[in-house]
Amino acid sequence: MTVASAFARYRDVLQSLNASNLDLLDDVVVPDVRFNDPFHRVTGANRMKAVFARLFEKADDIVFVIDDWACRSETVYFRWTLTATLSERPWSVTGVTCATFDEAGRVTDHVEYWDAASQLYERFPVLGPVLRYVRRRIAGR
Q1: Taking a C-beta distance cutoff of 8 angstroms, is the pair 116, 39 a contact?
Q2: Cα distance between residue 96 and residue 123, in whole Å
Q3: CA-CA distance, 50 to 56, in Å (whole number)?
Q4: SS3 58
Q5: SS3 of residue 33 by DSSP
Q6: Which residues of the chain have pLDDT under 50?
């Protein structure tokens, strides 16, 4: 299986995930997959599924779209946008993921890069204004 076709399978699973079909991940990740994002560093398919399960518990109307990707040897980099409703307010996060595939076409590593400060923390009533102030000060505005 080529990395491009393995990624196509993974992309389809990620874009179709919901609270009731998380077991689809078992077909596209290795049992000891490593998953990292700004809040989690877990090993194992069950722990990865638990991360997604918590997301589906906390947010509603989740839509995950992968809109661009690039393959290099066993690694795929892809840009994505997640939109949802969080605490009854619209929420959107854009990020990039680096996924590594084994010879069988299953993901061994999934590392997400996204800005938690501007895309999540700034939404909080007390923390948000402080972070925006600090960001303006650093930018010299």
Answers
A1: yes
A2: 21
A3: 10
A4: helix
A5: strand
A6: 119-124, 126-135
Q: How many CB atoms lie within 10 A of CB 4?
A: 12
CATH number belonging to domain 3-114: 3.10.450.50
| Sheet bearing 29-36, strands edge to edge | 41-43, 29-36, 107-113, 89-101, 75-86, 59-72
Angstrom distance (rounded) from CA 87 to CA 79 = 25
47-73 tens-digit pLDDT? 999 999 999 998 999 999 999 999 989
Q: State the DSSP H helix or E strand holding residue 138, giving kind and residue range, or none if neither.
A: helix 127-139
Supply 97's token pair: 């993921």
What is the SS3 assignment for 25?
helix
